[in-house]
């Protein structure tokens, strides 16, 4: 996988959004538990993309990108829960969900491509 690619860029930009959302949840909403879960899973997407890029083999890459997909799905869960419990506004949640779902679609396509190549 080449560097400076779409998933690398999108997952990094998403991690920045997650960090900023965490700051709002912690500082303004005084929410400390769920927001920490969101921070952990949301920032691990990009970290796992980087690990996949540095994978030592095709199998290693597929393993890491699969973990990336799971972390993105978990992040979706935390966003939806924070929205359902009124910690995130509908607009903020929808925007984060749209970005996260796009990341899931890209990762899913990468998984399919790698398994069939």
Describe this protein's structure.
It is a single chain. The protein has helices spanning 6-27, 34-53, 58-84, 90-115. The chain has 117 residues and is mostly helical. The chain has one domain (6-115): 23S rRNA-intervening sequence (de novo design (two linked rop proteins), Up-down Bundle). α1 (6-27) packs antiparallel against α4 (90-115) and α2 (34-53) packs antiparallel against α3 (58-84). The longest helix has 27 residues, at 58-84. The protein is elongated, with a radius of gyration of 15 Å.
Structurally, how many domains make up the residues? 1
Shape designation: elongated
Sheet with the most strands? none
Tally of helical runs: 4
CATH T-level fold name: de novo design (two linked rop proteins)
Structural class comes to mainly alpha
Percent helix, as a range, is over 70%
Number of strands: 0
The CATH architecture is Up-down Bundle
Question: How much β-strand is present in the residues?
Answer: under 5%
Residue-averaged pLDDT:
95
Determine and state the CATH class: Mainly Alpha
How much is the radius of gyration in Å? 15 Å
Gap between N and C termini? 13 Å
Annotated CATH homologous superfamily: 23S rRNA-intervening sequence
Q: What are the low-pLDDT stretches, counting only 5+ consecutive residues below 50?
A: none
SSE string: HHHH
């Amino acid at each position: 996988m080449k560097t400076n690619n779409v998933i690398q860029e999108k997952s990094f930009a998403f991690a920045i959004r997650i960090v900023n959302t965490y700051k709002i949840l912690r500082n303004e909403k005084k929410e400390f538990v769920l927001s920490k879960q969101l921070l952990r899973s949301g920032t691990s997407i990009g970290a796992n993309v980087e690990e996949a890029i540095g994978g030592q083999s095709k199998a290693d890459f597929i393993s890491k990108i699969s973990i990336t997909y799971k972390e993105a799905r978990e992040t979706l869960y935390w966003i939806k829960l924070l929205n359902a419990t009124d910690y995130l506004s509908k607009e903020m949640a929808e925007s984060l969900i749209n970005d996260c779902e796009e990341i899931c679609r890209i990762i899913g396509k990468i998984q399919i491509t790698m398994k069939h190549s």
